[in-house]
Automatic annotation (TrEMBL), chain A:
ABC transporter domain span: 2-241
GO cellular component, one term: membrane
Protein name: Phosphonate ABC transporter ATP-binding protein
PANTHER family: AMINO ACID IMPORT ATP-BINDING PROTEIN (PTHR43166), PHOSPHONATES IMPORT ATP-BINDING PROTEIN PHNC (PTHR43166:SF6)
Gene Ontology MF term list: ABC-type phosphonate transporter activity; ATP binding; ATP hydrolysis activity
Organism: Wansuia hejianensis
UniProt keyword annotations, A-Z: ATP-binding, Cell membrane, Membrane, Nucleotide-binding, Phosphonate transport, Translocase, Transport
Automatic annotation (TrEMBL), chain B:
Protein name: Phosphonate ABC transporter, permease protein PhnE
CDD domains in the record: TM_PBP2 (cd06261)
Source taxonomy: Bacteria, Bacillati, Bacillota, Clostridia, Lachnospirales
Organism: Wansuia hejianensis
NCBIfam families listed in its UniProt record: PhnE
Pfam name, any one: BPD_transp_1
Record-linked PROSITE patterns: ABC_TM1
Amino acid sequence: MLKFENTRVSYDGKALALDDINLVVEQGEFVGIIGSSGSGKSTLLKTINLLVRPSSGKIYFDGKDITKLNNKELRSLRRNIGFVFQDYNLVDRSLVLDNVLIGRLGYKSSFKSFFGIFTDEEYESATTALKQVGLGEKIFERADQLSGGQKQRVAIAKTLCQRPKIILADEPVASLDISTSQTVMDYFKKVNEKKNMTILINLHDVNLAKKYCHRIVALRKGKIIFDGKAGDLSDEILKTIYD
Amino acid sequence: MKSLRQYMINKKRYTLGYLLGFILILIFLGFKVNFSFINLYEGFPDMLNLFRRMFDPNLSYGKEVFEKLMDTIEIALVSSSLGTILAIPFSLLISINIAPSKSISKILTAIFSFFRTIPSLIWAAILVSVFGIGKFSGIVALTIIAFLMSLKLFREYIESIRENQLNSVRSVGSNSVQVLRYCVLPHMMELSISVFFIVLETGIRSATILGLVGAGGIGQIMWRDLNHLRYDNLSTLILILFITILIIDLVSLFLRSILQRSSIKFKSIKSYRRFQTLKIICTPIALLGLLILLFNSLSISYDRFQRGIKQGEVIVKRMANIDISYYPKLIEGIGESFYIAIFATIIGSIFALVLSYLSAYNTAPNKPISIISKVITNTFRTFPPIITAIIFFRGIGPGPLAGAMALSIYTTGVLTKMYSEVLESAKGNIQNSIIVTGATNFQSYSHGLLPYTFPTFISLALYRLESNIRNSTILGIIGAGGIGTILSMNITWRNWEQVGLLLLGTSLMIIIIDKISDYLRKLFS
């Protein structure tokens, strides 16, 4: 469902953040992307919903080349792609419920969303999503009242509410402690297994990646240097990644 | 070992050099603002007398004052709310991270930063020539200032929203209107109320002096009393102003702290949705109602307004046609304003450094001293400097010294408050790490807290310099030195070509000082 073809990204026109990426991801895969900081993990994810534009090459999503989309098509592409950030990026002053409803914006007209008009189904799906991440109780709390792990779970609920075909998570547990990380990762796993959701997740913790992901892609200086089953990741390969 | 000795000798030399240079600068500045201990000493009893009279207010005078006071408060309230409301849409246009067009944002920013260099009293003086004497001119002048102030605050908030935060709303497929509504606006509502109060605190101070140029409010009778040498009435007025400003500051502080804590608790989706519908219906109605109310209180006939606009056109055209030959007066004027501002900033900073040590809870020798110095500094910053200058007139007569002293006192008050807050919010560890070596409380301040927070102090002092430069340009309106004197004269004489030059020169000076201060701030931080 997702295919990179000779994708290159450069921020300044000189150094390449992504160098000739070729990658195919199938429906229902749980892919962990590892690599040291600056290896291009974030850039890789951000090119998929075009928060970062590739300088050359193609990216296919559901068989369509997304690098050629116009603004309107881009927005409908983005609503099919859930994105979870490391720093949660909730709107702190809004309620948890409002934050989850943001997931529905891609489906709404400017007029309706400006006046905050949401349908019964949308409220229903927001509460269901919150219950799925175990935060049914926190629905009317303000987002800044939550702990880090809870905030990330709200971000996941927002993404679920969006009903995406794929979820991209950029270091979702990097700011969390070990046990909270496990909880958050468990929710990703649950979503992957129960809904057959495709998930691409950036992790700097190799052990977490080995534990949760079926497939691991390792990046170094913008290039893929390993792509295979989690079990095939040898210590020698790990050494080259982090050297 | 030699290098260490060298270091010690050099250190001594540098310290001595800095101290000497500093003293020389002070003497030079003191000379420039006609500083004289003898004058101050001789004038002191007269000023004390004025204060003594405050405790024996002329109560029969109260009624007339009360009416004008209500006018003043109305001007402040109306202009602050209008300015805040108008600033919201513009802030969306100029904040660089969400601006629909970068070039529009840049053009608007340039225009507004030029307007920001013109103090409220000058706006008022010009507007009085356009729309006539009365509170309309005052309201418009303060609305302009309130607008520019809130615009700056809103813009700072919006530009502090991280790119990732905006991206996270964009990444669900939302368009720019939706990003605004769900990422920027949620906090704007709450913020605008606290911005309103911040603006109001400045507004009430400015409103009290508008009358000096005939733009309504209590300043009008204050100016009359001053000219008639009715110091008994003047002391009553100043007392009433003091109490009013204090009350408004306290109410503002109280409401802002309540707002920060309050939030509505919902029980079910149903009650939440009902509240949302109510909000959507009520917000525009309330806003519209408020605007109608505000415009109603402007109290100007359409006829007069049109006449004013026509007159304004002529004035602007004449101002644009600046009279270059007038520049010697300009240089003389802005020079004096500049020296007054620098003098006040340095003197104010020195006193603030001492007073903030005494008033911060964590550094003061004991609690009573801290409370006493807090009361004193808060009194210092209550009055607009122009009113303090009037008090100095009583003692040392008009002139730059009165202005410089008044501005120094105001600077001391504001800077002490800000810096002692910085001291109080500093981590206890910094002090403790010095105290554990057996040092005294003062040593823990001078070797721990002070070096740690000094860059912040410098940056605060530079902000004060920027504000002082603006203030020093208006002191002259009542004859307390600086460019304000010739500026207000030329406005009264309708010499718009000269006014144009003076305004341009003043703006340039302020912009240059702002740039330098900005550069220095970055250097020190």
